[in-house]
């Protein structure tokens, strides 16, 4: 599979992940163009987080193929990892290190050529340059999540995965988070797992509904009516978990 | 809010992929910085080692005259080291699990065995730091006044070889048990049988060094060579399997 300007940002073909006899993902297929924002909806246990973990190379699929920007995830996982940023409800930050030390750690591991300057620039962008020398454990949940955004963007990834990034955030923190995501959307592909149907639908360009590990619906937002989509989602939630 | 568009940062150029050694140094520096800031492992291991010595003192107080402490010294010292290490190794991935840090590291394009190597090195350093305090204390409480063999300084060799092996195996097992229920028990259940050959060899060599022996080659050199061989084999196995373990 070749990487090129025409390659979709994400291509999943029959993606399957089984834990023992239980299939968390069952032949998931979809194609997402570069620059799109995909929102993934579904009931608890539908396989949303597993899909994100497979696409971000944290978990190997048991069947099927997937590629990021033309790079096969199972054949060249290291190359694919360089394209991925992940923001989850867990910050992936070491609480006893400072914000700057955390970001420098990731910048150096990714091989950013001028880590200090890049970290300074990102802390400025997320509005935390004045707290750069404070330990992350002293930050509020909202501030931690802002550092987490900086961490995910430190290597300038092409695809950013958001795994329920709003959990535990108060309304003000959500507002700041939304502004930050909006400011980083240009030229990047986003995939977000969310339980907030209205918010996820408002942000996306494509929507995907999963239930019992299978794709119930995948379509560009232009082709969807929110009320019909909400009805479909309610029916899907009624289908229960895998 | 400033827009951070892809590719527009003058500071985000990528040199060649960082070398494995530079990634190793970065991860090791992170572990050391974190420990020196919190002192969680060093403090808990140090206090535990001290408590074991106090318990030894109570346990041996009434029977000391009937025991040859020089011949038991190696065994007692390794009991202290094994249980102190278990405590530290069990905690070594606590920070990685908190806040999903391990996943953050696994998202980076790096050879997984570098994570193993950096963590093992950090654990070796922490265990050695505790031994540097615990071993002289052990000597002070139980061996002063006893006839010391001139070979006593040679205990450094089995201590170093044993510590390296235990840190390597313990790091691997700590990764495996990180997400299990009752992880501390699981770690001990897997750790003790796996290190048994190493432990046996190191106890023999340490006892020979403390008590002195006329069969130096049989009781010191051979066990030490065996311990070194065990270290090499086990560390290589852990190195090779680590990618599979963290991905499973």
Give a verbal description of the structure.
- The complex is a heterodimer of chains A (242) and B (248).
- Chain A is globular.
- The mean pLDDT of chain A is 90.
- Chain A is of the alpha/beta class and 242 residues long.
- Chain A has a domain at 94-156.
- Helix content of chain A is 34%, strand content 26%.
- Chain A has a 6-stranded mixed beta sheet with strand order 6-7-8-3-9-10, with helices on both faces. A 4-stranded antiparallel beta sheet of chain A has the order 2-1-4-5.
- Chain B is mainly α.
- Chain B has one domain (21-29, 36-247).
- Chains A and B meet through helix 2, strand 6, helix 3, helix 4 and helix 6 of A and helix 1 and helix 5 of B.
List the helices and strands and how they pair.
The complex is a heterodimer of chains A (242) and B (248).
Chain A lengths: L9 E10 L2 E11 L4 E5 L6 H8 L7 E6 L2 E2 L4 H5 L2 E5 L10 H12 L4 H11 L15 H13 L5 E5 L7 H13 L5 E5 L3 H7 L2 E6 L2 E7 L5 H13 L4
Parallel strand pairs in A: 3-8, 3-9, 6-7, 7-8
Antiparallel strand pairs in A: 1-2, 1-4, 4-5, 9-10
Helix pairs in contact in A: 3-4, 4-5, 5-6
Chain B lengths: L19 H19 L1 H22 L7 H23 L2 H4 L3 H6 L5 H31 L13 H22 L5 H29 L4 H32 L1
Helix proportion of residues of chain A, in percent? 25-40%
Rg on CA atoms of chain A, Å = 18 Å
Determine the structural class of chain B based on helices, strands and strand pairing. mainly alpha
pLDDT < 50 stretches of chain A? none
Unreliable residue runs of chain B: none
Supply the number of structural domains of chain B: 1
Distance between the termini of chain B: 41 Å
SS content category of chain A? alpha/beta
Largest interface: A-B, 54 and 40 residues
Structure, briefly:
The complex is a heterodimer of chains A (242) and B (248). Helices cover 34% and strands 26% of the residues of chain A. Chain A has helices at 48-55, 77-81, 99-110, 115-125, 141-153, 171-183, 197-203, 226-238; strands spanning 10-19, 22-32, 37-41, 63-68, 71-72, 84-88, 159-163, 189-193, 206-211, 214-220.
